[in-house]
Design a protein that fits this description.
3 helices; SRPBCC domain-containing protein; START-like_dom_sf; Alpha-D-Glucose-1,6-Bisphosphate, Chain A, domain 4; ASHA1/2-like_C; alpha+beta; 22% helix; 160 residues; seven-stranded antiparallel sheet
Length: 160
Amino acid sequence: MTSSLFSHAPDPEPQQGTAAVADIVESCTVPRETEEAFSGFHEYLHLWWPAEFSTFGEGMHPEFEGGSLTETSLDEERALWGTVREIRPDELLTMDWFLGHSPAVPTTVELRFEPQENHTRVSVQHSGFGRLPDGLEVRDRLAGQWRNVLQRYARFMGAR
């Protein structure tokens, strides 16, 4: 036995944490009360979501159903975009967002609907990119997409 009075346990292995990748934060203002603004996003997504930011492209139909956000193709194929974690109508919608990655490693999308006189400020915060192996690349690609999605939504809701 070669124990020493001054021996100690080996240094622990470094923790494998998440890389620091900034969140995406975008917002828009729509000329609607919060109830209509929320409904326009949650109930009528299929009328304004850009086909170029979908799995199946033209003719696709995204919708919230049974606690999930799915997309259906013209051929009735389905893609799961995310699952709803928390919903407070007219105020908050938080989802696990899958990005084509395994549902075991989701990112998080949080939408907030905040009243402002006769308007509603809608903000999106997309976080959790550090958990993905290509998180910085994914974040950079999605930053412009969220901006475009909110612009399309705002036009649908009557913003100029």
